[in-house]
Structures are given as structure tokens and as C-alpha cells.
Amino acid sequence: MLLIRARGHGTPKLKPRKNWFGPIRMFFIPPIRRASTTASPVVDEDGKLKGVVGVDVDIAQISTFLSKLDIGVTGSAFIISQNGDVIAYPDSNLITQTQDDKGEGLRFKRIDELDDPIARASFASLNLPSGRFQLDRSQYTAFDVNGIAYHAIFAPFQNEKWPWLVGIYVPENDFLGALYENRTANIYIAIVIGLIACLIAVVMVRGITRSLDGLRQNAQNIMRGDYKNQHDFPTPYQEVQETADAFKHMVAALEEKERQNIELTEELRKTSITTILRMSSAAEYKDHDTGQHIQRLSDICAAVSEHMGQPPKWTEMFRYAVPMHDLGKIGIPDEILMKPGPLTPEEREVINSHAGIGASILNSSDTKLLEMARIIALQHHEHWDGNGYPQSLQGLEIALEARICAIADVFDALISKRCYKDAMPFDEALRFITDGSGTQFDPACVDAFVGVKDEIWVLYETAKAMNEPA
Description:
It is built from 15 helices and 11 strands.
């Protein structure tokens, strides 16, 4: 440390409270060393300059510090001054050289003179203009030396009083070599881990899928209305088990609702059928003094429908629609409806109007049953050859249910005793039906009627036995 009371050699005039940093110089006072001088003014209480305190900073210590840095395996660092001189390097002996051929005088080597081709190449990769050795900010660069990839970074010194540039380079293999060497092993390890993960995933997915498939099968059974055929399936997954338990409770509730709906539907069906039969009996009562006619008619029509291969649900609905075929007779005066003798043309016209009256009563219904009953009431007096009433329809223009009902209605009327006639024998009535095939009746329906004649004969014999007095 040196106290200078007057401005000495190599020390500039200082302003009060201002520090000064000198450039790097060679000091030849033994031992020869590289140093930078820094000075600070000394002032009294009034702020008057009394002197300067200066110290020489030996920068060789920086080279010693750089030599101790572990930068990768073979990486290195160095410092360049604003003049391009290398002022610090891990091997300090490489950065000085003589100034003349006689070996007298020493100076710092410039970066392009440094006996380190990698350091020279790293600085050259900055592509700075000639004569410029400073940067405004840090800069990264990559370069190759003899086919080996290197990475370098240069940054300006943090203290603006020392306009130095710090450079660091390191071979790419120093930090990526281990990864490259272990790449194959890492790939194998990754494949094994991936296979194990896939195996675990497959096992888990199969377990979950099996459980979900059981739920799916149960749901499909419910969609088909099968509440009984519900399968239990064990599962280790709590969420799936909770879902399955909730599904069971839902199925039980649906089953109970279904049972209640079946009971209610059956009750409504019985009520509707009873209402239909009683309403139909009211019309028949005026004509036949009994409701047995409509019951026989229903049984005959159902037998013919089954023989023709009609669906069971259609046949059942047909059975309950037939009793309303003569509902329109409610609107016919008793003196005409119950007249024992022949009818006049005018009276016949009134009688024939019962088909339209019945259809009007059953019109504007949203139910399939009543719509079928309306068609039967309107068309059961139509003839296959078009000579019937009230619309003179012919052939397949007449609904199937009306064509079957027409045969059964005529047959029962022939074989039953009325106020204006006696009962016709069974065989004779059957012959009347077959004779009318192709004219009054549909041939296919006649064939089906003949096909169930034994059932019809049993039906009438049973009714006859029930009506005979004990």
C-alpha cells in the first residue's frame, strides 16, 4: 500500500471521493509481475484533498483462480483486456512473451497469439469486427475444432472500470457424452419400463372392462324388459362396485314399478273390456235379447285370425274390437229393429244406417283398439264383389278385420234363432258361407273359417248345453 501526498508518476489527478482503476501493466521490480493499480483520494473534514491511497492488484491471482475451476472435463476460462491481451489464463506462463528478438521486455499475448487453438477458435466464433474485443452483453456461440463440437460463452466484466471480457469454453461431449454413451442402455430401460407399464395397464383395463361389460349386459337385459336376469360380478375397484350396487337398487326399483304397471295395466284392460262388452251388449240386447252373440262372435273371429297366422297381439285386440261391430244399432228405432216381418225398402235403409252410426260413435279415438272397432263397424257389411254397404268397397279395399267379422256375423245370424226366423242347421249355415266365397266373402277368410269349423261347432254345442233347462 502506498500513500501519495502529491500527485506522483502514473497517478492521474483525482476528484474528491472518486476512485481510480489503472490499466494492467508489467511491473519489473522483482519479482516481475502483472498488476493493476487502484487509487482512492484522501480528504480532510472540509473535503480538501490531502493525498491518495493506492494499491497494486496482482492479477496473477486471477489465473490461479481460473486454474482451479472445474469446467466440465476439459473446459477452460480466460480473460481478455480491452486491447485484446489475454490477462488471465489457467496457465499464466502461456500469456506473456518477450517484446524483441533479444528476449528483453515482456508483454501480454494477444488472444490470436495464445498457444491454445480452442481458446482462439472460441473467440473467433464471435465474428467481431477487426480490432474489437468487447461485448455489450453476454453472447453464446458454438464451434468445431478438429471435428469436436464445443460451446462457449463470453460476457463483459461486471465492473465498468475494468473493461474486460470473460470467456469460457467446454466440449459438448463433457456434458452430453454420458448421455450418448448410455443412450442404448437408456433405450432398453425405457422399453422395459414401457412394457411393464403396458402390462399393468392391460390388466387394469381388463378388470375395469370386465366389470363394465357386466353392467352393459345388465343394462341390455333391462332394455329388453328382463329384470330377473341380472348378473353379479366381483370387482376390486370401489367406484365400479358402488356403481354396480347402485345399478342393483335401480333394477329392484324398476322391477317393482314394472310389477305395479302390469297390475295397473291389467286392471285397466279388464275395466275397458268390461265396459266394451257391456256397451256392446246394450245394442245387442234390443235385437237378440242376449249378449251371447257378441261373445261367440269374438271367439269365432279370434280362431279364424289365429288360423290365418295373424300376430297374437293383433288377434287379442281384434277379439275385443269385434263386440262393437253393431254399436250403431243403438240409434235404430225399436219398431224397425225388432220387426218380426219383412222390412220395407225404407226400413231396410234405416237398418243399414247402423254401420255409419257405429263408426261415428267410435270416431276420433287415439287408441288402436277403438280405431279397429270403428273400421269393423263401418265395413263389416261390405261384400268382396263390391255389392255391400255403406261404401260399396270391394276386395282388399275392405280391411282384414272387417272381412273376417263379416263371415262370423252372417254365420252366427244364420245359426241363431231370431224373432223373424228359425235357426239354420250348422252344416247348412256352413254351406251358405262357402257358397258366398268370392262374391260376398273373401275366399282366403272363408278357407280359414272352414279350417276352424270343428272349434266353432264345439263352441255352439257348448252354448246350447248351457242354455238347455236342467
